[in-house]
Design a protein that fits this description.
The structure is a single chain. By secondary structure, this protein is an alpha+beta fold. The chain has 9 helices and 14 strands. A hairpin with a 2-residue loop joins strand 3 and strand 4. The longest helix has 34 residues.
Length: 320
């Protein structure tokens, strides 16, 4: 009977990267949204150096999901145990272990073993779940393998930066401006159009057309935005990115400041290496591409920050 109630899966992948690099990628879950396709955002809620509790948002079947994960890190054996809740069926978590084995100086063997309880599901749902389970481990392994095998170039492909502005006005007005992205086409010059779906309060899926790229062309992006009004934060990740960008995530945050609030836009980008010369011309190096993207995205975020400032301060003046 137990074999009918629990579905177990174990798959492996050979990775052309040192075992320490692969383990480091698995252990640093907070960076997953930039490095791996499905995660949108990861919040570390508790961590004692070995055990941690995470809240993770990802995208599956065009839906944004949120769940908690408990993990135990074993750097000595290069393994990570995890227990992931099933939001649809509390009490029936997915459990498993990632294991990395050294296969030479720059090669390793990555194994993912996981188990899921299927008891209590209708027959059709059980069949569907088993089918998903045949595909999911291979997909996860492929994502980790793809980014790990670029380990020697990641420093050149990744960049992070932030822009900020001080606002002499209430944080609530600034947050409202940033939250209402559907109004940006009328408020922010570089935004041509924006449509937003918010089936779950605080979880926005937006399609945005902008003309902020140098050269004046229109860029279409699709972005998930997680809004935390009580913390004055909006975290986002682009699901559809411009050709030059492989991944783009960031955060709008409001920090109380002397006489007002400091509004920060922090961004993290991974370049799409194979598109650099195609987009920017033959002979363009990664350093030039980094400067290009920093200027492009920084110009757009700075314009939005300044307009949020103007909106908050002008509203206060009108109310006076």
């Amino acid at each position: 009977m137990s074999s009918q109630r629990v579905h177990a899966s174990e798959q492996t992948a050979c990775v052309a990267a040192p075992a320490g690099v692969v383990y480091g990628l698995l252990a640093d879950a907070v960076r997953w949204p930039l490095l791996l396709p499905p995660p949108v955002h990861v919040e570390r809620m508790d961590f004692d150096g070995v055990r941690e509790r995470l809240r993770l948002w990802d995208v599956a079947d065009e839906r944004v999901r949120s769940f908690h994960v408990r993990r135990v890190l074993h750097p000595q054996s290069r393994s990570v145990e995890f227990e992931q809740e099933d939001t649809a069926r509390p009490g029936a978590p997915t459990t498993g272990t990632w294991t990395v084995r050294e296969r030479g100086d720059a090669r390793s063997l990555l194994t993912l073993r996981q188990e899921r309880t299927l008891e209590g599901l209708p027959a059709a749902e059980t069949a569907r779940s088993r089918h998903e389970w045949q595909a999911e481990p291979a997909e996860r392994l492929a994502h980790v393998k793809a980014i790990a095998e670029r380990w020697d170039r990641l420093d050149e492909l990744l960049l992070s930066f932030e822009d900020s502005v001080h606002v002499d006005g209430p944080a609530e007005l600034v947050y409202d401006f940033l939250h209402r992205i559907e109004d940006w086409p009328e408020r922010v010059p570089h935004v041509e159009s924006a449509s937003v779906i918010e089936d779950v309060p605080g979880v926005q899926v937006a399609s945005v057309d902008t003309c902020a790229a140098p050269g004046g062309g229109t860029v279409t992006t699709r972005v998930v935005r997680l809004c935390f009004p009580s913390a004055a934060r909006i975290v986002y990740k682009e699901l559809v990115t411009p050709a030059l960008i492989a991944a783009h995530s960031g955060e709008w945050s409001l920090v109380p400041d002397q006489g007002g609030v400091r509004v920060v836009c922090a961004q993290q980008v991974m370049l799409r290496e194979e598109a650099v010369e195609e987009v920017l011309g033959p002979g363009t190096c990664l350093a030039e591409a980094r400067r290009y993207v920093r200027t492009w995205l920084g110009r757009a975020s700075t314009e939005t920050l300044r307009l949020a400032k103007w909106h908050a301060q002008s509203t206060v003046r009108r109310l006076r």
